[in-house]
Amino acid sequence: MSAQAWRRTIAVDAGDGALLHTTVEGSDAAPVTLVLAHGWTLSQAAWDDVAAELAQGIAAGELRLVRYDQRGHGRSTWGTTEPVSIDLLGEDLHQVLERCAPDGPVVLGGHSMGGMTIMCLAANHASTIGTRVQGVALVDTSAGDLRRVPRTRAQRLQQRIEPGVIAFALARAKLVERLRRLSPPSSRTHQKMVRGLLYGADATEAIVLRGAEIMHASSVRAFVTFYPALGDHEKRDGLAALTRVPVEVLVGEEDKLTPVRHSRQLAEVLPDAVLHVEPRCGHMLPQERPELVAAALRRLLTAAVGARVGATG
Predict the structure, then answer these.
(1) CATH code assigned at 45
(2) What average pLDDT does range 168-197 have in this prediction?
(3) Of the candidates 236, 246, 250, the residue with the CA atom closest to the CA atom of residue 289
(4) How confident is the model at residue 6, as a pLDDT?
(5) Domain count of the fold of the chain
C-alpha cells in the first residue's frame, strides 16, 4: 500500500459557512492520527518537509496524517463569524478532529498560530485532552503576551494608528495586493526581509524562497484580520488540560516573532513538557529543522499508541 493511494481531500464544515481545506494521508486503520495546524499567513504546505520525514510511516500504515488550511488561509474559506479570534480557530480544530479523526488516539502539532490554536482547543474542550488527544507538540509559539506595551512616543503613536491602518488595508485590499506584486518572493529584497524576520543563520536560500512563496500566496485580508487576534491571544492560565499528556515544546534560538522566552513560559506552566531550543534557527523550525520536529512527533506518536494499549489492555 502506498501513501499516495490513501491521500484524499476533505472540505470540513466549520459550522458558520467556513470550509476548511483538509488533506488526509494514510490508512483509516492506522493506530494513531497526527493532526498538524499551521501558522499565520501560511498554509498546510508549511508542513511539507515534516510530512516528507514521516512519509515512510504513513506508507507502512503506522499513522494517518491530517493537515488543513486555517480559515482564511490557503484554500479554506472565511465563514461568517466576526471578529475572528484564535479561540475560533480552536473551534475549527475541534471540527477537524470530529470529522477526520472521530476515534482512536490523536497527536496534535501546531506551529506558531497553530500552536495557539491547540491551546484554545485545550482550554475550551478540555475533555478531549487525555482522552482523544494523547500528545501535543508546540513549535515556535506562545501562550500570550504578544502585544508589546508601548514604551516610547513612537510606539504609542503606532498603537493609536494601528486600527486605522488595518481598516485601510482591508478596504483597499486590491490596491495593497497590486503593491505586493512589485516585490515578488523571487526578488532579493523580498527574500532579505523574510530571512531577517523569520529565519536563522543556517537557513538556505531555497528554504527562504519556499517560505516566502507560501506566505506570498496568503491574502492581505488574512494578514490584517488575524494580526489583532494574535495580540488578543492569552491562554497562560488555561493550559491545565495539557498537563495530562506528553508535550514537546520546540523553538529556534533566533526566533524573533515568538522568542525563546515564550517557550520557556510554556515549560514553566507545563513542568513535565520537554523543551528544546535549537541553535541557529528562527521562527520556521518545520522548514529549518524538519527532522527535529518529526523526531519529536514520532516520540509523541509512539507514546500515544502505548497509552492506547495501556488503556485497553
Answers:
(1) 3.40.50.1820
(2) 73
(3) 250
(4) 83
(5) 1
